[in-house]
Amino acid sequence: MILNQRQQELLEWVQRTGHASVDELAHHFGVTPQTIRRDINQLADERRLHRVHGGASAHSSVENVAYSARQILCSAEKERIAQLVAEHIPNHASVFMNLGTTSEAVARALNRHEGLRVITNNTHIAMTMCHYPDCEVILAGGVMRAKDHGIVGEATIDFIRQFKVDYAVLGVACIEADGTLRDFEMREVKTSTAIMALARHVFLVADHSKFGRPSLVQMGHLREITALFTDRMPDAAMQAVIAESDCELYVAE
After folding, report:
1. Cα–Cα distance between 144 and 24 in angstroms, integer?
2. How many folded domains does the chain comprise?
3. 50 and 168 part of one domain
4. Do 72 and 137 sit in the same domain of this protein?
5. What is the pLDDT at residue 71?
6. DSSP one-letter code for 181
7. Are residues 45 and 93 in the same domain?
8. Burial of 30 (0-12, 13-18, 19+ CB in 10 A)
9. Domain contains 62
């Protein structure tokens, strides 16, 4: 298939950002949503990208983007989300924080807080926050993954189950149209679900690219989340699902 200029630019956009919606692509290129859907269908048939609900994704459903690439993708959006989350976590709170670059952005945004007690299986978060004055960091034990230095496994879950904390800050790979939450690896999902069960308030942090993105393993549902923090207002259908799930929505636009 020989790509026209619009299709080539569309493909480069999706590869650069990881995800794009039909509406934003149609607005950017000045064409109808139907035209964009045809482009996406053709590119998907060529296996150059993935069709997802409401748009296109560069991501596989079975393997996450490399950690180094995730550090760059939507970095400005993640920082805005992180600042908003930090405003909702008080001083002298206990906080679980899981794997993920958005969770790491929240860790950086908490640098002015006092009296925090942080439990994490994310070594990047531990190394960042251990230098904050009056912040105690407890790092979970377990198996360290080479690809992102995250700690997972049964020993990690057993360790986490010792605690009951005020807040959990959780990243996620996918929020489906019905509110189902998904991620890529079973061990990582088991760790996150253990954290969800042991927090009084669960804050989900997810930029716009996570909506409708394909991922393999079910992690839970928005019904189990206290508040969702994102960078763009979701579409009307997703807003309805969020409201029905009794989940608060905060948008860092």
Report:
1. 38
2. 2
3. no
4. yes
5. 63
6. E
7. no
8. exposed
9. no
Closest Cα to residue 124, out of 107, 143, 146, 145? 107
Would 207 be classed as within a structural domain?
A: yes
- Examine the pLDDT at 66 and tell me if it is beyond 80: no
Are 99 and 148 in contact, with CB atoms under 8 Å apart?
yes
Q: Residues 43-57: pLDDT tens digits?
A: 888 878 878 778 887
- Domain range for 40: 5-57
- Same domain (yes/no): 92, 41: no
State how far the alpha carbon of 18 is from the alpha carbons of 11, 12, 118, 195, 212, in Å: 10, 10, 30, 27, 12
Whether residues 144 and 247 share a domain: the answer is: yes
pLDDT higher than 90, residue 16: no
Report whether 201 contacts 227 (CB < 8 A).
Answer: yes
> What are the residues facing 199 on neighbouring strands?
165
CB within 8 Å of 7: residues ≥ 6 apart: 39, 42, 43
Percent of the chain with pLDDT over 70: 94
Taking alpha carbons only, the member of 103, 82, 122 closest to residue 169 is 103
Q: Is residue 47 domain-shared with residue 115, that is, in the same domain?
A: no
* Torsion on CA atoms 113, 91, 106, 246, rounded to nearest 10: -160
pTM of the model: 0.79
Mean of pLDDT values over 19-46:
91
Average confidence score pLDDT of the chain = 91
Give yes or no for residue 62 having a pLDDT over 60.
Answer: no
